[in-house]
Each structure stands twice: as structure tokens, then as C-alpha cells.
Amino acid sequence: MVDLKSQYEKIKPEIDAAIQSVIDSCAFVKGPAVKAFEEHLASYLNVRHVITCGNGTDALQVSMMALGLQPGDEVITSPFTFIATAEVIALLRLTPVFVDVDPRTFNLDISKVEAAITPRTRAIVPVHLFGQCCDMEPLMALAAKHNLHIVEDACQAIGAEYRFSDGSVRKAGTIGTIGCTSFFPSKNLGCYGDGGAIFTNDDELAHTLRGIVNHGMFTRYYHDMVGVNSRLDTLQAAILDVKLKYLNDYIAARQQAAARYNELLAACDKVTVPHIAPFTTHVFHQYTLQLAAGVDRTALIEKLKAAGIPAMVYYPVPLHLQKAFAQLGFRAGDFPVAEKLCATVLSLPMHTELDEEQQTMIVERLLQC
Fold first, then answer.
1. CB atoms within 10 A of CB 235
2. Any residues with CB less than 8 A from the CB of 224 and at least 6 apart, and which?
3. Do 39 and 243 touch, CB atoms closer than 8 A?
4. Averaged pLDDT of the chain
5. CB-neighbour burial class of residue 148 (10 A; exposed 0-12, middle 13-18, buried 19+)
6. How far apart are CA 86 and CA 99, in angstroms?
7. Which domains does the chain have, with CATH numbers?
């Protein structure tokens, strides 16, 4: 699904030099490369503050901790995403409230959000799924109307751009109260281990976030709050700082690959290619099809596998039907769009090294199934 080795080989001298510089310095935790990467990423995103942390899940958890949410507070999010989004809500003893998704973009259906708001609602977590932005302008208006925080889950959409009705453009994760991302190796900007970051334009909130990720500590051994230990190690920061210079190239390569897939699949009535909403760019963390009725997805995956072609289902079970959330009392049919997507989506290989020959072969085998 991802060719990280070929990507590494193209920038091997720079990556190796960055790693060696950290080893030479022996500054493995909170070394200068961490601050440098935070500053460079903040500049790329045009956001005031970037606070790095251990992974994308921690980024979401720390964000909710910083907002002072209390047990029993409700947080609205999507049932069609990786479990981390709702997992941290439950972990903090908050209540996840799911809203169904748009059948074309797979992101929150904004028209259904207000009906889910109650007096206990404190925040909304839109997920910019697979690489394109949720419709943030009406969501921000809704949040302002009800005095709610917005925590953007941009773990799959770093570099994606949202266009407002006035023509202004903001990058995913920089629009709401706080934005979060993951640097898991397969992400568009991935490190060689785990890593994550939090974005905000709020100076006071940034100060709180920096304390929480470091045991609630601003002055060594003086702990102003209960925090966590969630730091991006210096080796990963050095690697990410190199790869950040290539992020726009990586995005362009993924967009080109997606366009080739679209062209090759144009006449295929077995699938619906990804829809790109008019208000966002798409950075194609995943290239996800919807299969037509009657297509046996399991058999299709096995046939592709037999031909040496990986294909993945992101995600086979919606969050409201996961055993982990059984106590919330949801039933099949509660969020029909998310449930249908879980039964019909299929992701093809998508990465920066895909070429026309590979994609032609993938699609030819797909059409033979």
C-alpha cells in the first residue's frame, strides 16, 4: 500500500545526515531539531504554534485535556474513522456523540450536526478523512453559535487546503480551536516511528498544551497540572524536518496518481471514484473507492492479493458498532451512511512512488475481477 523504501532512497543522503547529526549531538530528547521542526512546520501551515508530541492519538487526547473538558461532557464526531478519534473521548470519560457522514466526501454531514448538540455538548471533532477537509466554514459558524470548541483531526490531511467563501485559504488543522496530526510512517508526512503534533493560534492554549505534553511542567520539577509524557524524539524530528521540504512534492505525486486512477477507472461501473468537494483540495492519504451493489468485496480483495496487489478496507466496522462502545447503546441502522460505507469502500495502493505502469496493472487486474 505504501512504498517507504523507495521514498527513503531518493532522499537517503539528507535523511542519513540528519540522523547522524542527532547521534553526534546525543540530544535524543527535546534536542534542537525538535524546536527547529516545530518552527518550520508552523511556517508551512501558517499557524502561530506547533507543539509536537508522541503520536496522533496523544495529540487528540492532550488537546481535549487542554480545553478543560470534564467527565460527562459530550463531544461530537464521526462514526466513520479510525478509533483513536473517539477512543480518547471515552478515555477521558467524556461522551462520544456520533453524527453520520456525507456519502460522497465521507466527512461529517454538517447538516446533521446541530440536531446532535445538547446542553452538555462542549466540542466537535471533525475528521478530515483520507485527505480532504471537512466543510469547516458552516461548522465554525455552528460552533460559534453554540460556544463550542473545534478540535480538527487532520491526521490524514496535512497539507490539504480549505477555501472559504471569501476566497481565503487555510490549511487543514489550522482553522478550529486546535488541530491535530499524526506522523505515523504511512502518513503523507511520516517519520520512521511514531510521532504527532498539535496546532493552535491561541497563545495561552499553546502554553497549556506545552505543559501537558511534558508532565504538566513548565519549570523543571514544578508541576502546575496533571500532564502526560508525550514527546517527539529528536531523531524523528530531524527526519521530519527533511521530509517537510518535500511535502508539497509528495502531495503533488499523490494527486497525480489519483488523477491517473480516475482516468483508468472512468468507464468502470463497478466502482465510484473519490469525490473531491469544491471547498477543499485532496492530498490523498488514501485512494478510496466505493464498490457498486453486488460486488463481492472479500472475493475482490483475495483476487487482487493473488495477483500481488494489496487492497485495504478503511474501515470495516463503524465506531458506533464497535464492541468498545457497546455501552453507548447504538444499534445497526443508527448511522446508515457510515454503515454502508464500511460495507462498500476499498482502498487501492496510494503513495508517492506509484507510476503509470504500476497503476495500469492494478486497474487491469481490478477490472478482470
1. 23
2. 211, 216, 217, 218
3. no
4. 97
5. buried
6. 12
7. 4-100+107-244 (3.40.640.10), 247-368 (3.90.1150.10)
